[in-house]
Amino acid sequence: MQLNMRQICFILSFFMVQISFSQGIKSVEIGHWKGELAMNDRLFIPFLIDFSNAQNKIQMEIRNADERIEMNLSIQQDSVQANFPEVDAYLKFKLAENKREIRGYWVNLNKKVITKIPFNAWFINELIEMAPNTSNITGRWKTTFSPNSQEPEIAVGIFEQVAGTIKGTFLTETGDYRYLGGTIGTNKFMMSTFNGSWAFMFEGRVVGDSLYGDFYSGQKYHTNWVAVRDENAKLRDEESLTYVANNKPFQFEKVLNLKGKKFDFTNQKFKNKVVVFQIMGTWCPNCIDETKMLNSFYADFKDKGLEVIAIGYEVGTNPKQQIKRLKAFKKRLGIPYEVLLAGTNDKNFASEQFPMLNGIMSFPTSIIIDRKGKIRYVHTGFSGPATGAEYLKLKTKFQNEIEGLLNE
């Protein structure tokens, strides 16, 4: 890969920064910082950081629109390690002598090949808003990703614009893009998100009632997208995506509990219970959103006969390492219900273990069975809190389904 001058200076400056951690982090400038992830020699994805001081303790938050990710800070020799609280990833960085600039890298442990992405950040004091343009993109947009490809993807853009700032997300049939935030100028805009597992950037331009843009994900992925304003835009009916195709039974003979033992679904614990099977992975931010919802449902309905079983499909092929990741995930999110390991994070592999369905097209996918063991509902993907009203609607639907089965 050929580096440009900006990338070369960026990397060299990281190794030139000298600090004393014990002095530096305590004197870091308090307020808003702007970061930049150097994904490759041409792509730099922006993100926002807040540093604050509470009771003489420095706190660090990643900002994605309305989302706040409070990082867990620790000393690592002469640098700072900031661990993401819910995903297996961290930032490692050093603070410059002027206390207004940091250099470091992002380590994402959720990939088959562990990635290490350089980043820098600098103190900006106040969040900068670009001048408002003549258009307002607030509302719903019927969106198509890769419109000229053989497999275009239909989505729904939901945006809210205030002066020169915008926030929102894209709904897709496999889940939402979570909290996107950015700025808008003269008929051009940019939104991004960074949560430890994902680094996304969406660029766009406004042409009448249409949007034309580019989507960047990680170090390599890029596609274009188009959208037209449509307040009635929606996705296909969920029941048409993943459904019961035959009467074949669940195949649990290869699924392990977190002690490495074969899981026994015939256990008395699950008899005459309403059970939610969550097909998930620790690497999946949408799965994290769904897990938080299921945690609350389990607390509310376990005494009435609800059980939840999370079935993990993890990065890699080493069961011991996969179980270790699931144990850490269970602890981080305070999951009170059963968490299992099914195998590697592959949708075709997952489909083989659920032969009664037409296939698994998304992580997460949730299956709800009644007290007699019959599948009553299947949910594909998950629309999380970033989707606002869509999330509340989905949460209500889940709750009504569970309560209805408990009351039968």
Number of strands: 23
**What gap, in angstroms, lies between the N and C termini?**
62 Å
Strand content: 35-45%
CATH architecture of the largest domain: 3-Layer(aba) Sandwich
Strand order of the biggest β-sheet: 4-3-2-1-9-8-7-6-5
Q: How many domains comprise the coordinates? A: 3
Secondary structure: helix percent:
10-25%
Total helical segments: 6
**Structural class of the secondary structure composition?**
alpha+beta
Put the structure in a nutshell.
Helix content is 18%, strand content 41%.
Summarize the structure in words.
- Strand 8 and strand 9 (115-125) form a beta hairpin.
- Helices cover 18% and strands 41% of the residues.
- It is of the alpha+beta class and 408 residues long.
- Mean pLDDT is 91; it is low at 11-23.
- It starts with a helix and ends with a helix.
- It has three domains: 5-125, Lipocalin (Beta Barrel); 139-229, Quinohemoprotein amine dehydrogenase alpha subunit, domain 2 (Lipocalin); 238-406, Glutaredoxin (3-Layer(aba) Sandwich).
- It has six helices and 23 strands.
- The strands form three sheets. Strands 4-3-2-1-9-8-7-6-5 form a nine-stranded antiparallel β-sheet.
